[in-house]
Amino acid sequence: MTSILNQHENYQQAGEAYGFPLIIKQLLNRAKIVSTNQTISYANKITYTYAEFFKRVNRLANVLKNMGLQAGDVVAVMDWDSHRYLEAYFAVPMSGMILQTVNVRLAEDKVLYTINHAKPKALLLNAEFEPMAKNYRHEAPSIEKIIWLDDTGFDDAEYGENDTKTAQVSMPDYVEGEYEAMLAAASDEFDFPDFDENTIATTFYTSGTTGDPKGVFFTHRQIVLQTLASTLATALNAEGQGVRYNDVYMPMTPLFHVHAWCWPYGATMIGLKQVYPGRYVSEVLVDLIERHKVTLSHGVPTILQMLLKEIAARGRRFKGLKLMVGGSKINEGLAKNAIDSGIEFMPGFGMSESCPVVARAVFDDKIDVMSMDEQISYRCLSGSPIMLVSMEIWDENGKPIPMDGESTGELVMRAPWLTQSYFKNPEAGNELWRGGWMHTQDIACITPDGTLKITDRLKDVIKSGGEWVSSLEVETILSFHPSIADIAVIGVPDEKWGEKPLALAVLKPEYTDTKAEDILALGHQAVEKGRLPKYSVPSEIKFLLEMPKTSVGKLDKKKMRMMYTEKLI
Fold first, then answer.
1. Is 180 tagged catalytic?
2. Exposed, middle or buried by CB within 10 Å (0-12, 13-18, 19+), for 390?
3. Candidates 3.40.50.300, 3.40.50.2300, 1.20.1250.20, 3.40.50.12780; correct CATH number of 24-379?
4. Domain residues of the chain, as ranges?
5. Of residues 206, 234, 440, 455, which has the active-site annotation?
6. In CATH, which superfamily holds the domain spanning 460-569?
7. N or C: the chain end with fewer CB closer than 10 Å?
8. What is the DSSP letter of 81?
């Protein structure tokens, strides 16, 4: 009888088997068959079908090829979240090129740094960013070709796949041409080749709070595996929480930031109806949610705050909006407001270096027996590891500690999609992967049932009188005061204790006369109930009109510490 090994050798010799590399073009396989009539919209400017989307991806690939670009070249994009960006997500890496998603919210000198570091040969440039990029011809010599992206001619009206832009677009003389015109002139047929799944597909730069931004990069294999695992982890959740075939997807995490959590890839893989909002303006976001009946999105807590404020101003509630929340820990006050406003939110955890999702909340039978307070507390944790992710908690000596829900240390992890290093910075990559595990710089514990609880960032932990203070725990307690719109706790120098906690708060408009002692009373009550140690309660609160945020909407505690340390010296 022929052995299985011999059968395998015979198949190889016959050349019948397809190797099926895990490359981004494979994510389109299902949608090309079942979703050709599904739609993709850019705000209220253009709507077309998936069938037209596939043609446009081919056209963009031909435009890049006709400009002389080759596999391995870097193509940068500076745009708001648009249909063009989604097309570049596929056409660029599927051509064997590397897509650089430029963080347009960084300071101009940092934007220029990231471009000069990645050295793109081509740039897709939104007209709004031309003042920022006008000197790149001289200051970023790697850029040889610029394609002009312009919304002129859409006229804020539905623009179908059979329409053409009629308005004259004004362009600088150094660009190759306008995006829509160049696509219209290109062939809609392109044969995307197979290649090594370990080919680099994307690069982008972390907004880091110290020094220059660091570039991370991901291969086709990593993006495909992340997309599959993240989608699966979400889909397995209960009705009302998990992704479904009939969902309507709209990102509220910028497409320049960690592939918008890989959900543009996931939504296209499934074949969902998609809406891209352009610039993030709260009124526009809510308008689009209501108009298109958006049911699936994701964002940082800042975005959630924007949505809640806007829907409250309209005197309405959300209906069936599932929002994946990450980027930073959500406090319980904001969580309660979200539930009251009709948002089903799913917390999770990830970082730029992790592509990004490594944990997602599990909604199963245990939720049904929880009280509302218990549910809110659970929803403010960081979920459980998704498939293929391994996590450990390490002490200061690099030794694993028990997952008992109490022992805290640094969270380290392994997964097949974690960045292997930093772009052109192997020393920082070696530090990231000390001991063969990726170091997150997050202080955490893991409960016996596998739920992850982030207690602080390593750099944000406060040490007062020799005792550690978790800023996140204090923020959670103070967030329950009805006046709080946003809250942060930082450590500032203190002669007696070395450091002491200081609270910074933004008040809701209707509570501007709230006194600091009324808010701090919640902290003192938590001490009496044994929820907080006495030394962790701030002695004062500074009221701000707006909280300092990073370019991706996270609390900028480094800037806060600088602001208030300087005032105390």
1. no
2. exposed
3. 3.40.50.12780
4. 24-379, 460-569
5. 206
6. ANL, C-terminal domain (3.30.300.30)
7. N
8. B
**φ, ψ (nearest 5 deg) of residue 148:** -85, 125
Query: pLDDT digits over 141-177, tens only?
Result: 899 999 999 998 775 444 454 455 555 778 888 899 9
- Rounded Cα distance between 271 and 211, Å, is 40
Number of H helices, E strands in the chain: 19, 25
The token pair at 458 is 């390593």
- Residue 273's H or E segment, with its range, is strand 273-276
C-beta separation of 75 from 184 below 8 A: no
Instruction: Give 252-289 pLDDT, tens digit per residue.
Output: 999 999 999 999 999 999 999 999 999 999 999 999 99
Q: Greater confidence, 137 or 491? A: 491
Catalytic member of 36, 468, 542, 554: 468
Q: Please tell me the distance from the alpha carbon of residue 401 to that of residue 409, in angstroms, as a whole number.
A: 8
Give the pLDDT confidence of 362-395 residue by residue, as tens digits: 988 888 788 988 888 898 899 999 999 999 999 9
pLDDT digits (tens, 9 = 90+) for 505-521: 999 989 989 999 999 99
Single out the catalytic residue among 134, 366, 463, 534. 463
Can 263 be counted among the known catalytic residues?
no
Whether residue 40 is predicted with pLDDT greater than 90 in this model: the reply is yes
Catalytic residue among 180, 353, 473, 475: 353
Q: Which amino acid is at 351?
A: M
Measuring CA to CA, which residue among 302, 220, 299 is closest to residue 265?
A: 220
| Residue 463 is a catalytic residue | yes
> Quick one: residue 239, left, alpha or beta (phi over 0 = left, psi -120 to 50 = alpha)?
beta
